[in-house]
Structure formats: structure tokens, C-alpha cells
Amino acid sequence: MFENIIRNISRFITITSEEEKFFTDLLVCQSFPKKTILLREGEICQFEGYIHKGCVRMYCLDDNGSEVTLLFAIEDWWISDIASFQEQKPSNVFIETLEDTEIYMLNPTTKEKLLHEIPKFERVFRMLVQRNLATVQKRLVNTISRSASDRYLEFIKVYPSIPQRVAQYYIASYLGVSKEFVSTIRKRLASKEK
Known about the structure:
It is globular, with a radius of gyration of 18 Å. The protein has nine helices and eight strands. Strand 4 (55-61) and strand 5 (67-74) form a beta hairpin. By secondary structure, the chain is α+β, with helices and mostly antiparallel strands. The chain is 49% helix and 21% strand. A four-stranded antiparallel beta sheet has the order 1-8-3-6. A four-stranded antiparallel beta sheet has the order 2-7-4-5.
């Protein structure tokens, strides 16, 4: 049941069977149907979650009330509003499932217990934060310096399965383009592959 999450953390640390049991005993496995809002703007994020199955997106609302997709998370990725979770302050984002999703979750209390009992888990969460920061930084640079076509090509490198799993308007909101643009570029790329 926990093979994937153990493999995920084993990229960063080595744990004993006792430590593995302690860790997995703290996890709460929850299943959510498609279109479930896991976190709303203004709420305090109470979870850091490992996605065992499914697809999730994080988004915010712009000044016009339109949704702007900030990231997608799929199997073997972690999802949380890190700032809200760490500081226990209201979130400025939404987190929503785009497919039926199964997540292994830690809350602030269980995470603190884990870090107290097995300090080497600090490395796991530090590495996850560093990877997240690198991803956000790369996305920011791409948004500022690359064309929409190049941003789409970079997107499908990072998220190769997402175009088959989510509606085009979510991808468009992630890239900051119209859904018609996404449709056009997908058709152009498909015709080049023939």
C-alpha cells in the first residue's frame, strides 16, 4: 500500500523498517472524488499530501475573478500550500482534484511528530521545498522570457500526461493564453508528428 511513497522518500534518505512503520502509521489515506476543493482561499492549509493516485491543481483568482492555474500535481508528487501550512496563516490559493484522487496526508501535528522522532525526515521536506522553488523559478523565467509556443513545449516536457488528463482551459490558464491558442498549437504539433 505504501510502496510508492516509501520509494519517493527513499530518493532522499534511507530508513529502517521501524522508521518506515512509524512514518506510515502517521499517514492518513483519503480518497476524494473529481472536482473536490481540498483548500479554499482564506482557509488555513492543514495538510501536506503525497498523491498516490489522481490529478490535482492549485489555482488562484485574478482581479477579474478568473481562475489562474499555478501548478498541476499527479501521481508521485506532493501537494500543499507550503506557506499556509508552515505559518498556519490563511491561504491565497485553492487546491482542487481534477480526477478521482487518493492522497496520503500529514497534518501539522503529525508532521511535527515525524520530524521530532525521525529528524532525518527534515531532509525529505527540505528537498521537496527546494525542488518546488526551482520549479516555480523556472516557470517564472519561462513566463517572462519565452514565447507562448515555447512555454507550451516546456509544459508538455514537465507534464507529459496532463494534456490527455485535463481540460484545455486549465492548461490555457496555466500558460496565460486562450484555450483556442492551446487547441491551435496542439493541432500544429500533431500535424508535425505525422
